[in-house]
Design a protein that fits this description.
- The complex is a heterodimer of chains A (113) and B (113).
- With 113 residues, chain A is mainly beta.
- Chain A contains no helices and eleven strands.
- Chain B is 0% helix and 56% strand.
- Chain B has 113 residues and is mostly beta strands.
- In chain B, strands 2, 4, 5, 6, 9, 10 and 11 form a seven-stranded mixed sheet that branches. A four-stranded antiparallel sheet of chain B has the order 1-3-8-7, with no helix packed on it.
- Classes of the chains: A mainly beta (113), B mainly beta (113).
Chain lengths: 113, 113
């Protein structure tokens, strides 16, 4: 069955360090992979999108990699700040044409001052 | 000016009641969604409408009936509410086509007692 797993439910990182979150998938052939941020009591907010033929995408302190051989995406936040504390969700869009975006289980990131 | 707005934000109701959640988007998107986020924070798609036409229905009990009067509105009506329906329901919208990001509302917290 299709599955999207994010490495850990919760991750604590010291302020200033790089936070790395993992998204693994099985039985998918994703055309795109997206990362969203969700703050408590709010809806998810889009951060970055990476296509299957792209290896890496950057936006300010954020970097996403996409390895379709390993079936894995890594999400990095460099020089992390307490304001980066949130739940981060990866989402896959299948390339079977129905444009359905399926979300992973999320990782709750806490940046410790 | 809220892009995707849904009402009510909080709803507490008794088992067996019928309730509705309304959603409106002002982004000019042609596709709207309902997602359900359970107590474990897993975000799962329920329905998707494109230009008022149902395109995704993810094995949701038929007590849940979405209605899209026009492409800017997607309402969710739930009959005979059960305890297990307690969750956060997110409305979202996007423009159709692959690789498009989804814009979420702030969520409606439904508690069935």
């Amino acid at each position: 069955s299709q599955k999207i797993e994010q490495n850990s439910e919760a991750l604590n990182i010291q302020e200033g360090k790089t936070a790395t979150l993992t998204c693994n998938y099985t039985n998918y052939s994703p055309a795109y992979l997206q990362w969203y941020r969700q703050d408590p009591g709010r809806g998810p907010v889009f951060l970055l999108l990476i296509r299957e033929n792209e290896k890496e995408k950057r936006k300010e302190r954020l970097k996403v990699t996409f390895d379709t051989t390993l079936k894995q995406s890594l999400f990095h936040i460099t020089a992390s700040q307490p304001a980066d504390s949130a739940t981060y969700l990866c989402a896959l869009e299948s390339n079977f044409g129905n444009e359905k975006l399926t979300f992973g289980t999320g990782t709750r990131l806490t940046i410790i001052p | 000016d809220t892009a995707v707005s849904q009402t009510p934000k909080y709803l507490v109701t008794q088992m067996g009641n019928d309730k509705s959640i309304k959603c409106e988007q002002n982004l000019g998107h042609d596709t709207m969604y309902w997602y359900k986020q359970d107590s474990k924070k897993f975000l799962k798609i329920m329905f998707s409408y494109n230009n008022k036409e149902l395109i995704i229905n993810e094995t949701v009990p038929n007590r849940f009936s979405p209605k899209s009067p026009d492409k800017a509105h997607l309402n969710l009506h739930i009959n005979s509410l059960e305890l297990g329906d307690s969750a956060v329901y997110f409305c979202a919208s996007s423009q159709s086509g692959t690789g498009n990001t989804i814009y979420f509302g702030e969520g409606s917290w439904l508690t069935v007692v």
